[in-house]
Design goal:
This is DUF6504 domain-containing protein. Helices cover 3% and strands 54% of the residues. It is mainly beta. A hairpin with a 2-residue loop joins β3 and β4.
């Protein structure tokens, strides 16, 4: 398994009856999603990232009773994101691989996190 932290372009659609990534462009190659193996939601680790809205890389103290949401996945991501583990192939007869694609619903950004070959 390889770890990545790369932005990808994604076209969403319905795969296996689930609204999910349908195709994505990674390193100049178009990958077609064949199946969705899993989907989950990750929340931010508040102790690692500070307070939402406090600025890039800033930390802040939240007063008791404050309604501020605590934590972000990084400076540009919201407090939670959906992660899709998909099997995708490239080219007509290309090999298939497993990808973890993360989606931030607040910004609409997609990111490739992991790749493992079958």
């Amino acid at each position: 398994m390889w770890e990545f932290d790369e932005a990808v372009e994604v076209r969403s659609g319905v795969v296996d009856g689930i609204e999910s990534p349908e195709q994505f462009l990674w390193r100049g190659r178009l990958w077609r999603v064949c199946s969705v193996e899993a989907r989950w939601v990750e929340t931010a680790a508040w102790w690692e990232r500070g307070v939402i809205g406090s600025g890039v890389g800033a930390t802040a103290t939240v007063a008791a009773g404050s309604s501020a949401a605590v934590g972000v996945l990084d400076a540009d991501w919201g407090p939670q994101r959906a992660v899709y583990r998909v099997e995708a192939g490239c080219g007509r007869h290309g090999r298939r691989e497993m990808f973890d694609l993360a989606h931030d619903p607040d910004s609409g950004r997609w990111q490739l996190e992991r790749v493992s070959d079958r």
